[in-house]
Write a structure and sequence with these properties.
Strand order of the largest sheet: 1-2-3-4-5-6-7
CATH architecture of one domain: 3-Layer(aba) Sandwich
Radius of gyration: 25 Å
Strand content: 15-25%
Mean pLDDT: 96
Structural class: alpha/beta
CATH superfamily of one domain: Class I glutamine amidotransferase (GATase) domain
Distance between the termini: 54 Å
Length: 572
Amino acid sequence: MRKAGISLVRIAEFAWVAMEPREGEYTWDWLDQAIDVLAAAGLQVILGTPTASPPPWLCRTQPDILPVDAQGRRRRPGSRRHYCPNSASYRQHTDRIVTAMASRYGRHPAVSGWQIDNEFGCHGTARCYCETCAIAFRHWLEARYETMDDLNEAWGSIFWSQTYGDWSEIDLPNLTIAEPNPSHVLDYYRFCSDAFVTYQQLQLSTLRSLISERQIVTTNFMSQFTDLDYHDLAKPLDLVTMSSYPTGQAEPNPSLYMPQSVRPVYAYDVGDPYITGLGHTLIRGFKPNRPFWVMEQQCGNINWGTYNTGVRPGTVRLWTWHAVASGAEAVVYFRWRAGLYAQEQFHSGLLHHDASPAVGYTDLEAMKADRSLMSEVASAPYEAQIAFLLDYDSLWAIQLQPHHRDFDYMRHLFVFYRALQRLGLPADVLSVDADLSPYKMVVVPTAALTTERFAASLHAFAEAGGTVLLGARSGSKTVSNRFTDLPLPGLLRDLVGITVSDWHSLPPDVSYDLGSSIPGLVGPTTVWAEALHPAVSDSQSRYPDLQVHAHYTSGPFSSCAGLTEHKVGAGR
């Protein structure tokens, strides 16, 4: 490891049964030895709490910890992530094992930090449908709405005769005959995300009460994973870290590209630089103005993709540089040596199964010559003048009612992101309540759910001289996922100065052409088209300083505007 230039090692994130083979019986000698060996070589250690994989004895004695899927089936042990974050017994056992670990290693000089759990929500486990969750969800709803009348109004539950008279009448939004109420489901998604925030905080509080102040605490995010609100999970952490697997993320299913789009020809064994870059950008934005880490960097074949290709020599070096140039302070490779047994036997390591150097190790040795320049790049501030706003509520609302199979929130964001990257323009991706003052331009691909506070924030940003780029379906919903009764784009109409009179969802073989006097601003509109018209203000006059930059030249929207600009204060 030292020969390859490695200085930091993560261990123990799936080792609960090795630490505690039977309830209350701890065996630390192997972990003591591992940390001592690494420390003797001058290596620092990140310890993972092992809660992502409860041991068989715990599943046997406390079967209620096992999650229930959307089909109502109790999930079985035998792999990983088989727990419900709302289980009281699992929270108790979590606190016990984390307390034991932190008490033993919380002030060890070789331990520089802690990773809580591993990849929350992976394998479709972000949402559990057990009875414990049903009870907790009702309490969550009561705290949010306080009265049944307010909940029924927010959800529009009178539809299909589903008005509730008591909190106990509310079930989880699964196993319904037809589709469940999207307001009900959105609140359940919010609740499930909050459950993991609470579960993480349980471990975080325990760790911080026992460990040294110099030890950092983090968890491992999965870049473009969208089942949990990473903004909320990131807030209490010292820094954020990510898993980066470029070839797996570049495979066409699922894809951020449209089906007919041309992907980079080398993506199969080098990855797609735009997709990899978006992952870095997303992670950096979850903890703005702080460096991030790559806690799992692909260093060869993966085992969970569709094709699981090999990688070219030099690729691991390229990926490392890409991460550092994007703001990464540390890059940790997964894994050291390829596994000889169980589920990840075909997942490459820096070393082959026989412990001989693999392509990743060779790249690491070559990177030793890069260290000085890498340190210089890593210490330089990452400054972007453009910010994307990512809103999980809008993302989930679009997932629940896409209205078109190809209308995908992250795909829509990626179209804008890739265009800016190709122009050499760096960008950040932030939450909707972020401070926008450092930026000159804000891109809002889809703000489906809009609040008065958010609308005012965008308006103030524009008045101060900023540029707001607003995409389709913005302003169409309220925070409870009800359609607005205001002329579209709802609360954002004063900002953009237009009214959306109609929208069309376009089949794959249909497009509406856009024309413009601006060179290059022509071409087909696919997937979703909106007819824009100058809006009429409350004083019954048209908004001043409105320009039409593109209009439809074919289809039912012919002569309607497709792209407009509205001056607002010193901005637009």
